[in-house]
């Protein structure tokens, strides 16, 4: 019996070691249109044409898109080739194609040589072809900016990916600046740039032997002004463009990209297809190539899927809807920002624009946001033990739970809905996110019960003893009163899978957690305003918000709709209109900085005024991807490690426990 206990403890310890050693990063999923049909051929017939279903950047927010120039480069197609049937795509039936296009510099000054450049999207990333008309040699675009940056002599401007420029000196007349370009602190090139009348003020760095190509422009810098002051010498830069030439790549015909392995290069066009069949496995994510996936629903009655891109790098990302040119309507199938449950095929939100009549002004009541409560399955779906469904409401692209299942007026954000397994020792806390945690206080001597405690910001909320003996449902529901004047509100559900009382440790295994942020629950009133949406109507399970005043889609601007949702409008002629809705999602964390020596690095801030003697240190510099701006608090999809504690065993403690088990076994022998 002792040997059995020791072996059982060892198994659970091993599970815990691996659970605590692996840390799940936050992930943003950018999805394409949702396709739903009886099988793949039905979907191609319904959504495609000429035996082909094609997705481009106007529909798939992950693909590169320039709204001002209306430029796309990438398409992903599914073809009705032989072998395409059921949920299987035949050989050559997946076609990824991208073609070089010309786009304007952000710093658009054609008279000064800043007009346009060649760009190609490559698996939802922006690349620059080394040869403007050949798609075989590519370097990632690091920076394309028209912001103004002011740097003192001796200071560096961090451009990202380890690249930087430094203002070495300014001449005594304040007409020239000596700039130096470095990579990972190593000298690359330098130049003296003049800003006197008649100069183009632009420095182009050309390098040789970039994938066997010479005279490759890797950096462009436009110096706006130079100032020689009594205290400081400074240069103002407006216009930066940079490629990651050190990691340039050459694409060969025998290269493979995930499940796409048949590569064809025809001048400015790159085409990659699948040589083998591709199965859309239900309830799974199948990688197409380079971080692009097909996500397929867990539904045996139909085939439902979408293409998507997974992002894990820290930063703030724009998630857009389908591009419109007039009156239009978006829901979760064509706006990736809206809540969508692919398994249950459930969406709740819609956004509609009517009454434009060829102009860019939406009349009163012409902008309508509507959302309706729907039922979805728990991630831990076990109807036999009470884990079947719960009500959900998308609210401005966030997932909320109605306090009353059939009323859309009182909402709390969903923090967690998980079917992952977590193993915690007595005395340890499991961080659930947003300041919520549960702790295993004690396990009974028979290993059949566990005492759990629920806290918020370290303060006691509730506790319970959960039994796992046969016949118990093993689920703890925390019900609280006075949540927006409602009583008996379920705020937490926890399913305890196993309890173990060992010779070394007492542990509990949890599988199934559901939590709402009840502490920040809100009530929506009819006189509330959400940005420019200020006419609120609540009709049972449906919430409708419209505009009481006219709403102008200002060209070359981002216009807030409400609650962090915007329209981005293209810089077009007055006779044209092009726009899309978007939200921003943020992955927290520090962006990796290749330059570890920060003592002499200043990241300048934008400066829209004439250069004067600076009184403060500039504080910010350009990055490839925006890291500031409106951030969206996202529900935590998985519990994370609390500060100072680890859910489950740490690796070291786990190993110590294993050694103890070995000792017990040897002693009993």
Task: Offer a quick outline of the entry.
It contains 3 helices and 51 strands. The radius of gyration is 29 Å and the shape is globular.
Q: Uncertain segments of ≥5 residues (pLDDT<50)?
A: 1-25, 591-669
Distance linking N and C termini: 12 Å
Q: What is the number of beta strands?
A: 51
Helix content: under 10%
**Shape category:** globular
Descriptive overview:
With 669 residues, this protein is mostly beta strands. It folds into four domains: 27-122 and 256-310, Immunoglobulin-like (Sandwich); 140-247, Sandwich (Tick-borne Encephalitis virus Glycoprotein, domain 1), CATH 2.60.98.40; 321-412 and 522-585, Immunoglobulin-like (Sandwich), CATH 2.60.40.4190; 414-519, Sandwich (Tick-borne Encephalitis virus Glycoprotein, domain 1), CATH 2.60.98.40. Helix content is 7%, strand content 48%. It contains three helices and 51 strands. The strands form twelve sheets. Strands 9, 10, 11, 12, 17, 18, 19 and 20 form an eight-stranded antiparallel β-sheet that branches. Strands 34, 35, 36, 37, 42, 43, 44 and 45 form an eight-stranded antiparallel β-sheet that branches. Strand 36 (398-402) and strand 37 form a beta hairpin. Helix 1 runs antiparallel to helix 3. The protein starts with a helix and ends with a helix. S-layer protein. The S-layer is a paracrystalline mono-layered assembly of proteins which coat the surface of the cell. Glycans are attached at residues 36, 70, 116, 600, 607. It comes from Methanosarcina mazei (strain ATCC BAA-159 / DSM 3647 / Goe1 / Go1 / JCM 11833 / OCM 88).
